[in-house]
Each structure stands twice: as structure tokens, then as C-alpha cells.
Amino acid sequence: MEKMARVTTALGGNTLTGRTMYCHLDAPANAISVCRDAAQVVVAGRNIFKIYAIEEEQFVEKLNLRVGRKPSLNFSCADVVWHQMDENLLATAATNGVVVTWNLGKPSRNKQDQLFTEHKRTVNKVCFHPTEAYMLLSGSQDGYMKCFDLRKKDSVSTFSGQSESVRDVQFSIRDYFTFAATFENGNVQLWDIRRPDRYERMFTAHNGPVFCCDWHPEDRGWLATGGRDKMVKVWDMNTNRAKEIYCVQSIASVARVKWRPECKHHLATCSMMVDHNIYVWDVRRPYIPSAMFEEHRDVTTGIVWRHLHDPYFLLSGSKDSTLYQHIFKDASQPIERANPEGLCYGLFGDLAFAAKESLVTADSNRKPYPGDRRHPIFFKRKLDPTEQFESVSSSALSVFETEPDSSSMGWFVDTARRYALAGRSLAELCDHNAKVAKELSRNQVAQTWTMLRIIYCSPGTMPSANLNHSIGKGSASLPLMNSFNLKDMASGMGSEARLDWSKGENRSENILLDSSATLITNDENEETEGSDVPADYLLGDVEGDEDELYLMDHENAHTEEPEYVLPQEAFPLRHEIVDNPSGPDHLQDKADSPHVSGNEAETVSLTPVESFSLISISHTLYESRLPPDFFSALVRDMLRFYAEQGDVQMAVSVLIVLGERIRKEIDEQTQEHWYTSYIDLLQRFRLWNISNQVIKLSTCRAITCLNQASTTLHVNCSNCKRPMSNKGWICDRCRQCASTCAVCHHVVKGLFVWCQGCSHGGHLQHILKWLESSTQCPAGCGHLCEYT
After folding, report:
1. Phi, psi of 733 (to 5 degrees)
2. How much helix, strand and coil, in percent to the nearest 5, is found in the chain?
């Protein structure tokens, strides 16, 4: 093993000397505990139960407590604790539900002293009272906690948490009668050992099981808890309600937490799975650990500080069958590998920039940047002279604010509040959202909603007599944008707008259009980009290799040909399409005439007849050619475009409005990513109702269950004031209904309102009507009720 630093610590008359060292165990360890004088450590597991002496250079095995010919589950330990007043007294929690005490002062090989077999399932934790020599507490998987007097054969008190399994129990160091218990359902309970019938306080600490807790050795009101939600929380118990004062986010479930001696804000943690390292955190700096020990190769199962007043020696056991002593000078410092620079945009466009304080303070003549309306804010922690890591670098944070009037995200909030996502027909939703987007000057988004309405909404519901009128006049039901005039276009284009027939390109049809109509070209059944006319209305079938729009010159037009005049009221029967049609006879004759020059023969222009309007094709012809599914790929690409541009609001809104029409075109993972991003933005802007509406209307299964998870409603009976079960609204104790209206005396099954002063209430409408004539409580208690 490589040479490590040697540390010597003077503790009163004792001196702790050692280095980082380890020893191999016979089996994986589940728990470890150290004796009062810090000279020995006990290691317990399913197949190991030994005591080791901690010498200066190595661990030396002193005693094997697994003795006897027959193997017994009493030796299979889930936890072990060494009494801090009697160095000969140990207690173990067995996996078969037995609590065993061990007396090391016995002369025989078998040191087993007493067996308590009252628990029905595995005991997860045992704990000695810090000052009472004969008091032992246990917490089991059966949901009960038991207090034992070692002078008696049975438990003296049984505490029922009315919950799932107990994961940890810890006596308070400062309060003689108080202990804390953590549970699988995320709750923490505080008990008084003199009152086993009811807990003193209960609060929900974590989102999931709470695996461990530890009282602060100096501050009597601080309790640290760790859970499966990968968080370590510090609670202040000195207030009427438990107050969370610090929260540390780790990368895996927290299995053990231990406060560091002589360091008020430091604690050590290890994980239950995935992460094998041991971290020491400064709770004031919760995002990066102060120190890290990386020696173990498997999950760390137990950690303990070697001495109550020594912050430099840490002992740990692991499933890799090793026992380690860690020295703080050998710990790695993640802060040294962290990037001290950072850049981030705020929700409303503010820019925050963090850099090393040495770089910022060195440039004392730095001119403020344009838009810098706030002096830089420096976050620098005053270093403790006893701190091991004096070289911890600090960063200076500069914030550059946007102008107060330039709310760059105001459109997002207005759009979220005004959009309609359900409750109407698809056409109405698209029209409403297009109107909202247009009013907010988001023209591209407005046009997108209009196109979605055209694609997915059938025009067959509109009277046929109004089709041409709506197109020519610009009806509100089918809005037309960017229409242009043929005359203006022809005059602007000049000779380039003419059709060259000399290149051998034969066209099957020449179309005469109204000069005021909007033009649409069709190439392989796709709409021209930028066109805003419904796809239902086409200008015939333009056959050929190119999708050009041909204009006719008015001076050379042969309008006397009746076969090329399209009627205004109906669409004529379609003529037979010829593979290689010849040009019109009159054009051929003119081209062959000796009286026509070559240039005149090559260039033939026709002009539109103003008396003819745009032709509408029947809806049945449109549906047979371009069903809504035809545009699914285009709509999918459109949604991806908006998402890539950062407008997840548009992507999610279209997903909800179209529903099953487009859901199958986008994979579930992508939808979930869009939904979570949009919901996160809504919640940042505190748009809670809209966020909940998006969750309810979501087409993604992983999103619809978000508002159904981690939601707990605690209800007390209004008669006996006791907590009610989740089975119904009838109290199990007093057999009374808890939600009775004080006015009509019927059960309230809908919205319930109550006075926070007297707890009486009822139907919202009934209470409002009652308050119109009286201010006193309708239940007759005499309270002057106030409803908020």
C-alpha cells in the first residue's frame, strides 16, 4: 500500500495516531461501531461478527463472537451498536427479528447475554440511550419500535408508528426523553419515551423512504435525514413545525449520515447503491462535497467517526469485505477539479456570470458592461482557521439585468394564458390560437395554426354557394394571406413572364384566371411554400415537368376561341389527357404563317380574362387525392422545427390539439421530453393551473401521472380531531362523517370550504349565501368565521 500521511490528535489524556489503512474481512459487513475510547471497532454482517483493535499501523483481530457448533440466525446482524458508557456492552439487530445483547466481560467463549424476541420481522436498527446505561431502543420492519430495560426480560414500551417499516431510530443527545424514528413512507416521527401511545410530532421529510437520521452533537435542535430521493436534509426542531434549513443533493440514495465532530456544518454520507464513495459535505455548500474517500470498490454499508471529539479519523465497512480507516489529509477534494467559471441565462433574460474571485478583483479598473445595472455580488465564505482545505477557491458572481420594460418572455406567458387546448372543435381551437398568435405579433405561428385548420378540418361543412365568395372576399372562416394580383405581377415581370414555346415543352392546359384571385401551384400534390390558400381549392391539373405559373399577354390573346373559356358557375368535365399534346391549332397556324416573324412565333403571351373567377374543386375530389394523413410527415417536421428553435410551447400545444391525429408520428420519448420542458417553464413562471391542465391533457402516459404521484392529503376528523384513514370519509373512531355541510347538514362530495378558526364549513355556495346575512359560524359555535 502506498505511503499515506500520518496524523496525531491529542484528546485530553489520549492521543490518536494513525494513517489511512485497511484490512480484509471474512465476509461483507453490514454495520460497524466503535468503542468509547476509540481503540476498537466491531464489524457485523450476515456471516461476520468480529472485534478489531485499531493500532497505529494496522487493524488486529481481537475477538470472534460467532462461536458454537450450530449456525444461528442470531449471529446474522443487520446492525450493531457499542454502548458509549459500558465498554463491555454490545447490541445487535438480527435478520430474524431478534435483538441480542453481548457482554464482553463474560469469561466464556460465548458472550451472548440477552435475547429479545418480540419483533415479528427483521430489526433494522438498535440504539443505546446516550446517558441511561440500561435503556435500548429498536426499530423493526414490522412498523414497531420497542424500548428495552436490560435488567428485565421483556420490553417496557412499544411504540407504533401506524405506518410501514421503521428504518432508523436515534435518541436525542440533548433531550433525555426524545428519540426520532424514520419510516418507509417518507415520514419522520418524534417520540417521548414516557408516552408510547402517540408521537409528539410527525412530518414528511422525503419523497420516498427515509433510510437514516442523526442528531447534531452540538445543536440540540438539528436533525439530519437521508432518503431514497438522493437528498440529505437538515431540520430545525426548535420551532413549532419542523423547518428545513439545509438540503444537500447527492447522486444516489443515502444509506448513512453522520455529523462530523467539532465541525458544526459538516456531515458524512454514503450511498445504498451505485455510488461506492464516502462524501463529507458542508451543508452551506450543498452542490459539491468538501472531501471524498474513494477507496471502496463496492457499496459502503457503515460509517462512523473514530472519536466523538476528533474530526480527522473516519472508519468505514463495505460489501467489498474491507474495513478502512480514512485520514482527512488523504481525502480527495472535488472542488479542485470543479470549474470555477459559469454562465447562465435567467428566466427573464438576465445573464449571470461567475468567475474566480482572483480574476475579478485583479481587474479593479473593469468598466461596467452595457446593461449592467447591478453591482457584482460576491459569494465568498469566511474560512475557519481550523479548516483542512484553506485553499478552497471562491467565485464572484456578476449579474447583468435586462431593462425592466423589455420583458422578452411576456409573449410566452400571454400565449400560455390565452391558448385554448380543449373544449371546442378542432377548427375553433385552431382559429382561436391563430388569432391569439397574430395579436401577439407571432405571424409565423398564426399561419401555422391556420394551415393546421385547413389540413385537418373538412370544408364540407361550409355551404357550397359560399365557397367562391369566401375565397374571393377573404372570409374569416378560411383566411387568405399574401394574395397577389396577376396584372401587377405581369407588369412587374416584363418579358420574363412570357412563355417560350420553342423549347419543345408541351403543356396540356392553359388556364385563364381572375386577376384578383390568389394563385396556387401544385407539384406532386404539395402546396407552394408561403401560400395561404386552402388546399381544397386547386387550379386544375397542370401537367408537365415544371410547376411554373404561365401568364398570358393581353395583346396577343385569342379570346375568340370558345373552347378555352372556362365557365364561371361550374367546373366542366375534364378532357382526356394526352401524353404529348400538340399546341393549340391557332398557335400552330400562327407559328407557320409567313407573315409572322421568328421572335413573334417563339413568344406567345396570353392575358387573364377579368370576368372569370377562381375555380373550386369539389371536396370529394380533394379527399380522394390529399387526405389529412398525407400531411402527417410535414406536420411532424414542423413540430420538430419549433422544438429545435426552443418553442416547446407551440410543439406541445399542437400535440394536445391534434391528439391522436399526430401522436403516432412522434416517438414517446420525444413527446415526454417536450412535455417536461414545457411544464418546467410553466412552473417557473408560476402558471400552476395551466401546468396542471397540460398534464391532464397530455397524450404521453409518463406525463399524465405526474400530478397523481407524491401527493398526500392528511385529513383529521372534524369531530374527534383524530387522523382519518384513506378508506373513506367515515371516521374509524367516532363513526361520524368528516365532511358535513354546516348549513344543509349533508355530506359534501364536491368543493369544500371551511373556516380555519373553528374548522366548520360546507358547500361553497351554501357558505357564501350564509355569509350574506350573518358573520357567525353556521354550526352554532359562536365563532366569527373568516374565509379566504
Report:
1. -90, -55
2. 20, 25, 50
* Residue 583: strand, helix, or coil: coil
The whole-chain average pLDDT of the chain stands at 75
Residues 497, 500, 503, 504, CA torsion sign: positive
Reading the block at residue 571, the C-alpha cell is 367546373
Buried/exposed code over 617-634 (b: 16+ C-beta within 10 A; e: otherwise): bebeebeeebebeebbee
pLDDT band at 577 (very low <50, low <70, confident <90, very high): low
Instruction: Report d(CA 428, CA 448) in Å as an integer.
Output: 14
Buried b (16+ CB within 10 A) or exposed e, 351-385: bebbbebeebeeeeeeeeeeeeeeebeeeeeeeee
Measured CA distances, 343 to 284, 352, 396 (Å): 22, 6, 12
Q: How confident is the model at residue 786 (pLDDT cuts 50, 70, 90)?
A: confident
Q: For residue 565, what are the CA distances in angstroms to 562, 571, 612, 724?
A: 5, 11, 9, 84
SS3 686: coil
pLDDT band at 226 (very low <50, low <70, confident <90, very high): very high
Interatomic CA distance for residues 164 and 160, integer angstroms: 10
Q: Are 252 and 272 in contact (CB under 8 A)?
A: yes
User: Cell numbers of 457, please?
Assistant: 378540418
Tens-place pLDDT, residues 257-277? 999 998 999 999 999 888 899
Q: Which residue has the higher pLDDT, 94 or 494?
A: 94
The backbone torsions φ and ψ at residue 616, rounded to the nearest 5 degrees and listed phi first, read: -110, 135
C-alpha 47/C-alpha 59 separation (Å) is 19
Residue 164's SS3 state is coil
**Closest residue by Cα to residue 710 from 185, 167, 181, 227:** 185
Helix (H, G, I), strand (E, B), or coil: what is residue 635?
helix
Helix axes 632-644, 443-456, angle to 10 degrees: 160
**Cα separation of 554 and 569, whole Å?**
24
Q: Average pLDDT of 754-764? A: 81
Q: What is the pLDDT of residue 547?
A: 40
Extract the runs of DSSP E, i.e. beta strands, from 638-767: 752-754, 761-763
pLDDT digits (tens, 9 = 90+) for 334-356: 888 877 788 887 766 778 888 87
CA end-to-end span of the chain: 69
Pick from 182-196, 703-717, 745-759: least confident: 703-717
